[in-house]
Every structure is written in structure tokens, then in C-alpha cells.
Amino acid sequence: MDIVFLSLAQVYGISGRGIYSDLMRMFRDQGHQVFIVSPYERRLGKNTSREEKEGVTILHVRTFNIQKTNFIEKGIGTILLKRQFKQAIKKYLKDVRFDLILYATPPITFANVIGYLKKKNPQAVSYLLLKDIFPQNAVDIGMFSVNSPFYWYFRKREKQLYRNSDYIGCMSPANVAYVRKHNPYYPADHVEVAANSIELGHTYNTEITEISFREKYGLPKDIPIFIYGGNLGKPQGIDFLIQCLEANMNRTDCFFLIIGGGTEYRKLDRWYQQHIDKNVRVMQGLPKEEYEKLVHCSDVGMIFLDHRFTIPNYPSRLLSYLEFKKPVICATDRHTDIGKIAEENGYGYWCESLNPADFSALIDKMLCSDRQMMGENGYQFLQKNYLVGNTYQAIIRHCCH
């Protein structure tokens, strides 16, 4: 088949590891022709172009800055994205007849692009990988209210995107239930689980690697390390994360390693600079392979989400924890099922991200647990549910006419 994948993230190739690059490699390796459309943000100073690379075609579309920029430019850039993508596709991919139109949220403003592609390719199946339920997530964390024009506009676009999607693949059962409940106009049997998934990669299983990496980053060699890696923005509830670190910063039986970047990183770093002699290390983002080696050298993965969320987020950072056999602590809202699934399958513990004492209690509990067994449980769950072949099969079965 000829497959087009629309991405909000900048794609330079598919050789790296990640939920989308792994999936695109799977489609390529199964003999499909893959076309990826992704932004060239204006900060790069590059024009729209098409290239053939690593067995796929990548169409880079010049756009406004839409990642790691101020709210105004991100909003304008997101709105204009549909026109910029459509014009680029018309010019550079006009002769391609697509069989599968694949895309992920964010953004929801892809709706018009999907509509255009479906009209041009009436035989194609359109499949939404739902990673972000917007605008409700923005309402939850106070970015705007349900009575604002922003909400009305984006909610209309969200409904349009869903209507233009033949199928919606969600990250977890709680996501499926949420979409069905809040969008009764959409066929319930066309909403299914297509979880975040990866291709299993490297393993770092020698004692020498662990010792050397702990030494390289000035980490303690003889106590458990609790690691968090990923975005540090408003969705992660950084104020609560800081409260948890403060509540545990004088402990001598564990160490906390925070790695990432985002809109709230400076707030966290300012706190860290005042407590640099404690059992905490805060670092900006690292290359993926370097980060994964640190996950391997750590003992427990952590996941944080703002307690105000009413939509069920399911962070993909869980996957690297499970791949490297690390149990997890999830401090989140009550609506996501990431903690529930971890507890039911024996690879983690959950608390609501409201009371730091609850988080501290989970630290105590984890230190007394059989972390090796929990890590093995998580790895087995990953192999059964979160490998890229599962997501590929969920999508491709709808394309066998």
C-alpha cells in the first residue's frame, strides 16, 4: 500500500527509536510505500522540500514554530498548519494515490487536510492515533475555559477530525471509554485500543556499564535511583513534583534523577540550584541512547501528571521503563488508567498527585518490594501489549478490503 503519515513532530529519518519511527519502519519493512509529512519550523530557516531517505519519502513543510515556543505563536502556527500541509501535499505528492491516511494528535487542526486527502483518495482508510485529547486537556489545567472562543473553535475542529477518521486508535481502555462517552455521534465500534508501542532495541546488562554510567553522571553507586525522563511542562504538574522532591530530599536510602525539558524546566531548575547538595539531580534532555543507558542504570521509573486532568493521559515514557525492566511509580490524576494497569499487572504503584505524603509512602513501599520481579512483570506486559507489531496489526486489519 501507499501510506501517508502526518506528523506534528519534525521527522528527519526513521532510523531512531520512538513510537512513530518504530511504526513507520514496521510499515516499510512489511513492503509498504511510506510517505511522511512533517514540519520544518521557521527557526530552522529551511524551505519546504521532499527527500527520499531510509526507504521512505519525507516531505518537510515550512511552518511557524509550533514546539517549544510561546502560546501565541504556537496557536497561530497550529491554525495555519492545515493550509501549509495541504499546499505542500498538492505540490509534492500530487501523483500519489494513498491507501492509508495515518495521523496522530496533536494537532486537531489536521481535520481539513484529512478531508482533502480522503476526497482525493476515496478508497483510502483514515486512521487517527489519538495521543492527545484537546481542547479538554487545556481546560483541565486552566489554559482557557469551556466558555472561551478558543474552546469553541478547537472543540469544533476536534469533532471534525473525528468525523473525518474512519477509525480512532486510543492509548488505553480508559481512552476508548472517554472518547465513546464524550463523542456519542461517532460509531463506538470504530474506537479501539492501538497503544503506544515500540520495537525492542538495545539492552545494557553489564555491571561495568552501570557502574561507569553512574560515575559519569556523579550518581551514587550503592542506593536505588528513581528516574523521571521526559517533558517537564504544565501537564506534568511540576509544582507537585517539587513538593515530592522536597519531602524526600533528606533521605539517604534513595536518589532522584530528573531528566527532561519543557516550559516548566526553569522553575524546577531554580529549585534544584537551591538544593544541589541533596539527593536529587536535575538534568536537561539527553540524546535518546544516553538517556536509555541511564534508565538501565536506575532502579525505578516515575510518571507524573497534573491531578486536575479529567482526560486519561497515557505517557509513552512508560515504555522505556518497561523495556529496561524497571518498576514504576505513577503519581497522576484519577482518570488515567496508567497506574491501575501497573498495579493490576504487578509492575508498579499509583497515588493521586495531590498529597506528597502519598508519594513518599510509595517510595517506602517500593524500597521494600521485589523490584526485580516487578520489573520482569512489566517487561512481560510490554511484550504482550506494547510492541509495535500490535499497533501495526490493529491498523492494517482495517485495510484488507
Write up this protein:
- This protein is of the alpha/beta class and 401 residues long.
- It folds into 2 domains: 2-198 and 387-396, Glycogen Phosphorylase B (Rossmann fold); 207-385, 3-Layer(aba) Sandwich (Rossmann fold).
- Helices cover 41% and strands 20% of the residues.
- It contains 15 helices and 14 strands.
- Helix 1 packs across helix 15, helix 3 packs parallel to helix 5 (149-163) and helix 8 (238-248) packs across helix 13 (356-367).
- The termini are close together.
What are the main properties of this structure?
single chain, 401 residues, alpha/beta, Rossmann fold, 2 domains, 15 helices, globular
Q: Kindly state the mean pLDDT as a whole number?
A: 93
State the distance separating the first and last CA atoms: 12 Å
- Which strand order does the major sheet show? 3-4-2-1-5-6-7-8
What name goes with the CATH superfamily of the largest domain?
Glycogen Phosphorylase B
Uncertain regions spanning at least 5 consecutive residues:
none
Helix and strand topology:
Blueprint: E1 2-6, H1 19-29, E2 33-41, E3 49-53, E4 56-63, H2 71-92, E5 100-105, H3 111-120, E6 125-130, H4 136-140, H5 149-163, E7 167-170, H6 173-182, E8 191-193, H7 207-216, E9 225-231, H8 238-248, E10 255-261, H9 265-274, E11 280-284, H10 288-297, E12 300-304, H11 318-323, E13 328-332, H12 338-344, E14 348-352, H13 356-367, H14 371-385, H15 388-396
